[in-house]
Specification:
The protein is of the alpha/beta class. It contains twelve helices and 14 strands. A ten-stranded mixed sheet has the order 2-1-3-12-11-4-5-10-8-9, with helices on both faces. β8, α7 and β9 form a beta-alpha-beta unit. The longest helix has 18 residues. The termini are close together.
């Protein structure tokens, strides 16, 4: 069995965390007798510096031709003054739109070993394991018209029925497999777009009577995430709100370096850590690779249908953290501080140990 993966390391710490995650991917592939055909391409600011555009047609075609895409991070101070359509982030928006990636999955799980890494109280955090489902190709990020001049800047917030229906149905399907509890987050008290969103979610919900639905305004949801995160299981929300709420979820896990993501469509999939390019620590071997490694775990689940490999990656992360190893962003006194590459090595070591402990032998897909 063979899979093609397009690698887009990007900017800042992107190449470091991507390299670490790819090494985990290769190691898992060896155990499960799966071959990965890996090709690396420039994207974001790195691509702009080389080609004058953050995303070339060649790279987009390579993504079309792949079974999955792994992206590191894009952006950085040096490109901040570029026009909007040439900024590194424009590459990510174009990838999402071109590949039809309308579902963004962002898990926020509190590992017991990291329960003191957050500024929130341990008793508030313990047992938190939620999933944010963010609609990814609508809302103000893609609405037209948009623009800026000397007197004003403007964006259009818009959703079509099809856009809301497909993400809502996915959310209900996921909820059925979890705790059958869904929070739909909007701003229906002031936004017509959100009123429309809520209407369509309720219509789709009629097909899923086993799932309880609670609607919540986004400002309240932000507060509730840090007040009582365990009340949430699956959170469905609009593009912009999901962008903000998933970063707030970093408060729960203790670091943005712990949050993976999967962006899915009907035909393509892209995986990336939620964190940015962190240019201040780029090249210093300090970056936390766990979000990117967890993103590879999501890749095994959603693109390769290899759930056991994904489970072992998550168990390897948990065992490594339980042993006290930490990158600087999650380090506390009493832990053992390690580099990006050392954390990668520990994950691979524990993955292999767990595999052998379970005497899994040869897997079939």
């Amino acid at each position: 069995m063979s899979f093609k993966v397009a690698l887009l390391p990007g900017d800042g710490i992107g190449p470091e965390v991507t390299t670490a995650a790819v090494d985990v991917l290769k190691s898992a592939g060896e155990k499960f007798n799966v071959e990965f055909v890996l090709k690396e391409f420039a994207v974001g600011g790195t691509s702009y510096d080389k080609f004058g555009t953050p995303l070339t047609d060649e790279v987009l075609q390579a993504c079309y031709d792949s079974d999955a895409v792994l992206l590191g991070a894009v952006g950085g101070y040096k490109w901040d003054l570029l026009p909007q359509d040439l900024k590194p982030e424009a590459a990510l928006l174009k990838l999402r739109k071109s590949l039809g990636l309308y579902i963004n999955i962002r898990p926020a799980k509190v590992y017991n070993a990291l329960i003191n890494s957050s500024s929130l109280k341990p008793e508030v955090l313990k047992g938190t394991d939620l999933l944010i489902l963010r609609e990814l190709t609508g809302d103000v990020y893609f609405g037209e018209p948009r623009g800026i001049d000397n007197e004003k800047g403007f964006n259009t917030m818009i959703y079509t029925k099809k856009e809301v229906e497909r993400i809502a149905r996915y959310a209900f399907e996921v909820s059925l497999k979890r705790k059958k509890r869904l929070h739909s987050v909007d701003k229906a008290n002031v936004l017509e777009t959100s009123q429309f969103w809520r209407k369509i979610v309720n219509e789709i919900g009629k097909d899923y009577p086993a799932v309880s639905v609670e609607h919540m305004y986004v400002d309240n949801a932000a507060m509730q995430l840090v007040r009582d995160p365990r009340q949430f299981d699956v959170v469905l929300t609009q593009n912009m709100f999901g962008d903000i709420l998933s970063d707030i979820a970093a408060m729960i896990t203790g670091s943005l370096g712990m949050l993976p993501s999967a962006s899915l469509g009907n035909n393509y999939a892209l995986y990336e850590p939620v964190h940015g390019s962190a240019p201040d620590i780029a090249g210093q071997n300090k970056a936390n690779p766990l979000a990117t490694i967890s993103s590879v775990g999501l890749m095994f689940t959603h693109s390769f249908q290899m759930n056991k490999a994904a489970e072992l990656i998550e168990e390897a992360i948990s065992r490594t953290l339980n042993s006290g190893y930490r990158t600087p962003d999650i380090y506390q006194p009493g832990n053992t501080k390690v580099s990006t590459t050392k954390m990668r090595d520990l994950i691979i070591e524990n993955f292999n140990i767990i595999y052998d402990e379970q005497a899994l032998g040869v897997f079939t897909l």
